[in-house]
Amino acid sequence: MRNSRTLLSALLLSISIILLAQTDPKLRPSEVYVLMRDAVDNNPREERIAITKPYMSRAIKTDLSDIEQFYLAELHFWNFMPDKAHEIYSKFLTRDDSLGRACWQRVLQIEFVAYEKAEKVERAIEEFRNKFSPQPRDELYMFGQVYNVGNKYAQAGDHQKVLDLVNNELDILDYEWPYKSYLLPVYFFSSYKELGETDLAIKLLKDARAGLQKKLDKRKETVLDNDPDFARHSERVEGMNTIMTTRLSYNQSNEKFEDAISKMNNYIQRMGQAMKKLPEVSIASATRSIQKLPWTLLSKDQEGDASSSNVDGKSLSYHYNQETDTLYFKFELFDGFNADAPAISVALDIDSNQENGIKWYGSNKAFKVDLMLSFGPKRDGEKYFGYNGITDAIGIKNRNWINIKQGNLRFYIDNKNEVYYLAVKKNDFAPYSTSVNLIGSVGSNSIWSDDIGKEGTYSTIEFVK
Q: 191 in helix, strand or coil?
């Protein structure tokens, strides 16, 4: 029933937007941009292009000023029309003002993502820096390009190249603005870890925090009584902004500093925890009461599709006890049961929004993950040591499996039937969610082996209100 209502809602939204686009008069691209942006803000769970594309027909496309041409390119960019967007942006690459800056950033993003010209983009990073110095309100600077190219090197195992890219970006920044690039050591913490440079990553973050705090203290010496309060937008819209489309008051800018400093405090703490020795975890034998729970099947998997570690998942089931707020998972295997070093995880989309989160690293790479439940101990004598907890998208990227909450999962093992069980309080990961999308996975020795379910799919749990 819920899926039917969702489909009906999406259909009505599409019809209303199309009718609106067909009947309303032509507008300047900047005006259409505002309508598109507000539509995305007001429909957070709808696919972005389904909301924005019908507005394209309302935009005037001829006899436009330079600024309006830029906004026309933005309309194409927002609607995944790279060729048309690239053509317009490229007209302004010789300019050295904010318009030229934003066009450079957009062109490089298109050339990396749509045209796959990674080497060209890497060379252009330095060209951009020579042409444009860091400037307040240009929050991204070269973050997007360094992240894209750095991620490509990280996947290839060239971690020194990743550090060179990050360090070159940080060297040129001042503390006049909370640039997103200050968080690059967080995003690439795994590369610092591979090279034994975790202390450097934490130092870079601490230096940025100190510099931003000093600048914020100085800014707060000035108090503006009639400071305007511009509209605030959703994360999806914020992530699409450029220096041309960002509007912040003085006090809102201060809030940007405060938010960045708060994130850095959090990440510094998490990165420190990631360097500590793995804690002791407990494993209990599955009791008859757990085995006899009224299980609901979520997904079945085909036999023989496991990776080289040969832990082959068979099925994933769940039971939710509303009275105790406990969610149980049951992992059945075809092969690879390992009582000494089991590894299981549940990748979660807690807001039912597949436009945010990080790509899952298992077989269903199209699935976007917000949080992950992770249990991966290893036996050492009579004890187990390893991962037990919850991580977010940054933790997944940096292989820090317990950066949100630690020690809150309960793990049970059925040696006779070779079954794993996991229990967690729903309040620990999705207190307000009425449904979650998920993928359950199995492995051993803290290494992923197999997603349970048909490739390219995921399961959904709906909680009774």
A: helix
pLDDT for res 12: 53
Q: 352: number of CA atoms within 13 Å, CB side?
A: 16
- Is residue 39 located within the same domain as residue 143? yes
d(CA 388, CA 377): 8
pLDDT per residue as tens digits for the range 422-458 = 999 999 999 989 999 999 999 887 778 889 988 778 9
- Show which of 274, 309, 333 is a domain's final residue: 274
Taking only the tens place, the pLDDT of each residue in 69-100 is 999 999 999 999 999 999 999 999 999 999 99
Classify 167 as helix, strand or coil.
helix
Cβ neighbors of 238 (< 8 A, separation 6 or more) are none
| Domain range enclosing 67 | 2-274
User: What does the block give as tokens for 420?
Assistant: 């794993």
Q: Calculate helix-pair angle for 82-89, 66-78, nearest 10 degrees.
A: 160
Report how many domains make up the chain.
2
Express the helix, strand and coil content of the chain in percent, nearest 5 each: 45, 20, 35
Q: Please provide the distance, in angstroms rounded to a whole number, between the alpha carbons at the two ends of the chain.
A: 15
pTM for the model stands at 0.61
Q: How far is CA 322 from the centre of its chain?
A: 30
Q: Are residues 264 and 318 in the same domain?
A: no
Q: Which amino acid is at 139?
A: E
Looking at the structure, do residues 135 and 208 belong to the same domain, yes or no? yes
Q: Extract the residue ranges of the chain whose pLDDT is less than 50.
A: 1-7, 10, 21
- Cα separation, 57 vs 24, in Å, equals 10
